[in-house]
Amino acid sequence: MFRYIVRRLLQMILAFFGTTLIVYALMFAGQGDPIQALAGERPVTEAQRAYLTEKFHLDKTGVGGFFYRYFDYIGGLLRGDLGESLTGRRIVDILAQAWPVTVRLALIALVVAIVVGVTCGVVAGMRRASIFDNTTLALTLVVLGVPTIVLAPLAQYLLGVKWQLFPPTAGSQPTLYALLLPGIVLGSLSLATALRLTRTSVAENLRADYVRTARSKGLLRRHIVGVHVLRNSLIPVITFLGVELGNLMSGAIITEGVFNIPGVGFNLFRAIRTEDGPLVVGIVSVLVLVYLLSNLLVDVLYAVLDPRIRYE
Amino acid sequence: MSNFEGVAATETLARPGPSGEPGAPNGAGGKPGKPRSLAGDAWRDLRRNPIFWLSLTLVVIVAAMAAVPGLFTANDPADCVLARQHAGPSGGAIFGYDFQGCDVYSRAVYGARASLLVGALSALFTGVIALVVGMVAGYFGGWVDTVLSRIIDVVLGIPLLLAAIVLLKRISTDSPTVRIAAVIFVLAVLGWTTAARVIRSSVITAKQQDYVAAARMLGAGNGRIMWRHILPNSLAPAVVVLTIALGTFIAAEATLSFLGIGLKAPTISWGIDIDTGRVHMRESAVPLVVPSTFLALTVLAFIMLGDAIRDAFDPKLR
């Protein structure tokens, strides 16, 4: 168990440096003159140039200088200092304001995925090849196949603009009700995957030897399903949903952009449109970190839930 | 136990369909006496799967649209007259005109080319990278496998959309060819890992087979064994993964173009049109709905096709 966690941790650190290095190298290496790029069309005085060179350690050149600045950036990232966006706001402040909204949206999406996905998945898994099973399989395939950039605007149009069941956009102080439709749209993908996962897992476990034993002991069907099958079937589902929470927090770019929800994804959406380079890098770095951490947590959780993984 | 065997039995009985031959699960379709290969079995399964035919038809139609858009519409997608803004259907423009006064249907038809080009080429490059990495890792094992598997882990840990955003932000040119090439490159570089894992594990299974040992005893070298024996036997799962990946890449391209960092204006892309249509949905929803439908159907077609092929090759997943 301990060895597994250590191995997993080392792997994550590798992934962290790999990703941040790529992000950093792509954003800042090989640019012509970064100071001129910062100033845009305006001329830069000698004093300003000297100050900026000093501030960003631009006097160190070559590969060594690149890594010096890279570790500077990593240090800042770990200390929670992400610099400023082109509009002059501190990126940490932008994120601090946006994060709670995104977390709320992600939680709504996750609840939708768990309640609908897992319930339907269990039913479908127990009644394989029934009408319910085939219908949900076909429906989930459709949901998995329709990209968010189709689903989100269409849901917004039909439910928000045409039939007016939900507010079409959320605005700056979104209520829970305003977040409901985006939450469902965001959660639909996880819902479909969770449903399929639960279904396969339940169907597989129903064939297991311990279920046969339980049945021959004369246990009630609902006891077998509720205690034995469900417990073992939900392990992969929990893993998936854990990873998905990380995904939902970072993957809400389209949904937040379409529904005008002032979360992290929306800020990234806007930063891309306004060509705000530092803001894009800052947000992406943090999101990658969240993604990696949630993956790590889930893998450790998995090892706790499923003892077999320890001997891997 | 009997319960589940019963379920399995009814499944096999039910599968051949009402016109099929129940009770003759073996050799029902083929010539009697001739042993059938796995591929032959799969093909027999595929042939009677309506989803397979449906998705294949869709794929063929979209491919035809990409190759010869002139077959489907006579109108020029670049012929935009602002006076026709959001005008209704007329003169071949069966879905009317969009905000810029362009023919909605014609643009949707011409949009197939960029999508399919990006999807197919990304899937092709993904396949090549995944094949090389998966084969080498699976066949040689040992430290080569360890290193390659860790690289796969790291790349798999990078969220695709975020990384693509960062990579594509660097491309500032507006030249359509360069942008298409950039999107293909980004998707291939980020998207090969799943396929590589699948190929690696099927190569590991294949290399332990007796025919590999036999080939080696006959004096075949590594290259020959990999090319002649292992590759054909581990290709089926790769084809499935790549078909589904093709659909995902098309969706990814549209998403990136939607965000404004994928393909850009002179290129016609469903993603761009969905974005424009979305902004003006209150005036007219048609310019949003038409490219959305085209995109969704195309992505769905590829995913369903991959799903059907997988079901045929791997019946136990059913």
Describe the secondary structure blueprint for this structure.
The complex is a heterodimer of chains A (312) and B (318).
Chain A: H1 2-28, H2 34-39, H3 46-55, H4 62-79, H5 91-126, H6 131-145, H7 148-162, H8 176-206, H9 209-216, H10 221-250, H11 253-259, H12 264-273, H13 277-305
Chain B: H1 2-14, H2 38-47, H3 50-67, H4 104-140, H5 142-156, H6 160-169, H7 176-191, H8 193-207, H9 210-217, H10 222-233, H11 235-259, H12 270-279, H13 286-313
Quick overview:
The complex is a heterodimer of chains A (312) and B (318). Chain A has 13 helices and no strands. Chain A has 312 residues and is an all-alpha fold.
Explain the overall architecture.
- The complex is a heterodimer of chains A (312) and B (318).
- With 312 residues, chain A is mainly alpha-helical.
- Chain A has helices at 2-28, 34-39, 46-55, 62-79, 91-126, 131-145, 148-162, 176-206, 209-216, 221-250, 253-259, 264-273, 277-305.
- In chain A, helix 12 runs antiparallel to helix 13.
- The model of chain A has no long low-confidence stretch (mean pLDDT 79).
- By secondary structure, chain B is mainly α.
- In chain B, helix 3 packs across helix 4 (104-140), helix 4 (104-140) packs parallel to helix 8 (193-207) and helix 5 (142-156) runs antiparallel to helix 8 (193-207).
- The radius of gyration of chain B is 24 Å and the shape is elongated.
- The two termini of chain B are 19 Å apart.
- Chains A and B meet through helix 1, helix 6, helix 7, helix 11 and helix 12 of A and helix 1, helix 5, helix 6, helix 11 and helix 12 of B.
